[in-house]
């Protein structure tokens, strides 16, 4: 028994050393467009290509917190930028379908992906369609409205137009364990949102101002792209989610169908007899199969890492995200 216990300190030390090392190492899992490999899914040999672009899981950027390989490098923005640049360089790519299955993500990352899609459309003239899978909520819906048309599966969940600031407080816990906060700052609101300080009414009011501004941006993006009058959109934009039929009825999406229906629609629209349907993959991940068919940003490990990152951040996290688990957040 004593011999076994002797291994415990060494095991704990090894784990701590591994965590320490990973915090110092940055691995580029998302190469530039030159490093992406094309995979043909169907229609091999057809002249015109249709590119499928998955946008799954949490929509983040290089500033996301957490351990590498556990969501700390969930760089959706870089991945989408590289994908669209490679597509723009291939004259055979005639259309793009965004395969969206996400509850959203950070405010900035969602907005950056939206603008990447808009910019690609404007420069290339190539049609971009969005196909929502299980979910296209909040930041994912924000991204989808950049497309020329938004399609959903019959069972999709859509919407959640709104902002949430995820924030926790640990003052009660600190008092119980005898820890004292001795932070010094230059102004009364410099530590606004710190988990080490109680949230005051003024803090809450200032945060509500931030939320209102970011909400207005989200609201305007949807109103303009979906051509929905503000007075009609307003009662729909309170954070709620919709079924596919409800979303179609309220003009939040264009059509309900399946991927094959969308591809046939694009063929008719573009007078194309057959598409070579393709995807781009990262060669390292494709070769190793570490994350299966998912990118590291979309894996279950990544979700756990992002949650850990959010919980350990020193300040609030502003999100275009639908997640009922954030019940203690500011909305």
TrEMBL record:
Question: What protein name is recorded for this chain?
Answer: Protease-4
Sorted keywords for this record are: Hydrolase, Protease, Serine protease
Query: Organism source for this protein?
Result: Leptospirillum ferriphilum
Record EC number: 3.4.21.-
Keyword Magnesium in record: no
Every Peptidase S49 domain range: 122-272
The UniProt entry's sequence similarity note says: Belongs to the peptidase S49 family.
Q: Which GO terms describe its molecular function?
A: serine-type peptidase activity
Q: Which GO terms describe its biological process?
A: proteolysis
Q: Please indicate if the UniProt record lists Coiled coil as a keyword.
A: no
